[in-house]
## 1
Amino acid sequence: MTSFPSGFFDPLPRILVADDFDHGMSGWLDLRPNFVAPGFREHSSDIDLIHWGPTMLSSATFAFGGTHGSASGTYSLKISSRAAAAPADQPPAAGSMGLAIKRLAVPGDARRLRIEALLAYKVEQDRPGLGVDDLRAFGMFVDLQDDEHRYMPGVRYVNAVGGEAVRRWQYYSPTDATDEEWSYGADGWHKAGVDPQWFGERGPDGSTVATTWFEDGEQHLIYNESDDKLNWTPFSLTVDLVNRSYEEFRVGGRSFRFPDGAHPTLAPAYNDIEGLLNPVFFVEADTDRRVSLFLDSVLISVERGEAA
Amino acid sequence: MKTFYTSVVELRQPFDHAIETHPYECGWADEAIFFVELHDPEPGTAVELRVQVSPDGIRWIDEGTVLTTTSTTFARVSHFGGFLRLAGTARQADGGAASATVSVRLALKG
């Protein structure tokens, strides 16, 4: 067991993994497509999925402040975009996101899943001033499949759109888009609802066909007053695996209510991934400037047994 | 046991003459190898890439190692501080500017 700061966490009884990032990447890596086409090409080309920014272990070192370190220790997981962005109502531009994934499987009898993290987000300090509104969004979803459905519950903090502050949380919700509409008109690999972080028609306000704004979802997280200051903020999402629905979402000092029975799109099951448990954290640029999401730590836990 | 991680820092990334790879934080590692792969180059097209170090991931200084290839190559690097990248150019055989599609894999150990 690593020295993660347990005071920030409230796990379910069975901890699956506790990743502190002071001892390595802990199985987190770049989310990349399936290189199964001839010539090791990616499986689909509806949008550019191969140029997202790379994930790395960061000491959070800056030009003027020196090494910030992490909440506990030196290193955190840094998920970075490249210096690219498309308008909010367009599909994501090549390289405009960074995504890190960990690949697990649901243990037997798990009926609730909780994913907790300590996170911070920053814009690259490559120019004078405050860059907060150059970061469009960050978020987390978990790719799950049971014997009937593949589904991806998740939340996204829309920080800014077109350089204007938004600061609101949304969650992934059902869409009635066809598979073709979902993949921006391509007759692709993906079923509607799968990979909502980059598929589904987008709106100019930062919404998509598969997002719903929390009714009380405005939150001014701690970006701080400079592009080199990090405040490690607790994050916790709980999912009901039996009903495939959202249960609880907490960030910082706030708790956000889901409508009763709220759930993400339920896509048909895919081949050979039953029991999948793949959490993904991501960050999105709003301008041609690199942005980063820092994680220290990630704690994934479940509760087993029959529903009460 | 040491920690090991390979990042595919650039995957089939097209560059128009000037090449700069993504700033990569790797202060935890003691040693690194940059693997460079040029994809389907025009005959005679070569890339010349300088290893660079940085105190902050923003301001870059040549480390001294230079890679030149028309296909694939690698360079070993050590004692590099907190950040690494490659910077350079793609050129035709006659020295003129060229475009190139490049993959860069950074193997880290420490």
## 2
Amino acid sequence: MIEIVSSARCVACDLCIKVCPTDVFERGADGIPVIARQDDCQTCFMCEVYCPTDALYVAPLGDPAPPDSPHTDEDALVQRGELGAYRAAVGWGRGRAPGASLDKNYLFTQDAPAREQR
Amino acid sequence: MSTGDALEADVLVLGGGPAGAWAALSAAESGARVVLADKGYCGTSGATASGGNNLWHLPPGPRRDEAILARQHKGAHLTDAGWMDRVLDTTYRRVGELADWGYPFPHHDGVQRRSSVQGPEYMRRMRRRVHRAGVRILDHHPALELLADSDGVVSGAAGLARQREHRPWRVSARAVVIATGGCAFLSGGFGTNVDTGDGLLIAAEAGAELSGMEFSTAYALSPKWGVHTKGLMLQFASYYDERGTLLDLPAGVPPRQAAALLLARGQRVFARLDRAPRHLRAAMREAQPNYFLPLEKAGVDVFTQTYPLRLVYEGTVRGSGGLRVLTEDCATTVPGLFAAGDAATRELVTGAISGGGSHNGAWAISSGTFAGRGAAGFARRRGRPERGLAPLGRAGLRPTGPHTLTPKEVVAAAQEHILPPHRSYLRAGVALRASRVSLEGLWRETTTGLSGTGRDRLRARQAASLVAHARWITAAALARAESRGMHRRTDLPQRNPALDHRILTGGLDEVWTRPDPVLPVLLPARDEERAS
């Protein structure tokens, strides 16, 4: 679930509010989005993909992270470069090749040497 | 015109995933004025944007007949060869257009590989295309009900604007396409919580029929703590128990299915991708970043460490049941109402098994194209809808008694009958009959006492939709007194040739089932061909 909106990085563009398919965010008084409905988060990473400043962190958990969890420690996560990781994987952002152009699914599906398909 | 007001369109598309986007685009290409309303955001909403799609994508030629024959066999003989052919053809053409518009398909050996699309890239481009075609996109505009004229012809929809103080909206239209996705019962699987089957509820209130609702038992494997149900890479997995002992899985069943069966029976199962060849590991990451990244975030190296699995229900999103389509342009049995994508039955192209992993993705493209064109044609032939259209919404919206139930209570009560693997992964007549009785009571309570205000208006509708789905699913699962494809009855483990037909269901206060009089259309099996 979404755990962190980094106010140090956020530029208050509100794109995450717009693109979140389950409407988890609300605009805060200072323009920085707040996580208003964490229970509605479906951990789809779409906000991470769209965030232009890598200000968001979505934990890989289906439930809210406990308070002492490494998934709520913004400084440590920033240091390890974990904010915006999915945006990098998808290949969005300046200077990146779109991940779609590197897509290797064809190696693993019906036409490929590997068999079992999803 | 601002939201909260009334809009007018030739075609209204409900849902902004791939099926809705292709439907809106196709209707606009046919000259219709189109409005697309999505519950979330067209571009991120739904299972495809989050998960991506492999596509059932084949060039013209003999491989298509082979593919049709293979799927009719795997799909347990409920498919339709004519539909499959049209879907292959339309998907191939449309994916070609996607490439022409600049979608960055990968190259391999000098050839573009077009059998897979990455979710965010695909849907961002589809949104842009839909927008450029002149379609009016309404994000965060969930539909709550359909509108009909005095002849019962569907003539629009009404809903609420989620990011504008839940103000009401209303679009009057000459035709409506339902592309709202399947129903995963708010199980939490990534990307599927928008899929609460709202479109089937509102269509059923207009009298639409459903098909294949027994094929709603799709589950996928995710990390125990997580929601990421990407399974393709598990083709390289070995499975272990909690002591780290390699599980001795039965032969003759794909290992992933055998592991799922153990989980459904309550055992703990762990996975490690130790069968992944080293030279493929980088390519694996590039193919499925949304499998690897969540595990890496959790500190798991899948090649060297085991991690615990769980089953996540995916219902009709990865199953095959949905609105019955009557004609080649995806018209439903209700005039003015068309269906596309996971909201429509996919039995025609995938039969009794999951269409996940290629067929559903192709179906979204092609059925969206058929439905969009069909709706535009219907709109052209029809006059402008009269004023004073009737709103059709009932359960959760217009309760017949005092407010006694919250959406949360109703969701939990409906989930209990569907989500647990011992209910759906493995079905049994006794449990289904017990569910049928409880769900009758739950439906009566829902129609009497469920409602909400503001955001809870939508939640109440979603809750009502889950109860309606639980009833259709239970009725269809009882009517299919056999095991076939993903429908596994522990009390009736064999396939029954007398049930070589699709099963229709529908109704709200009275749920009914009956055999589909339109029989599957099958190609002659190869052995028979050789013999003749």
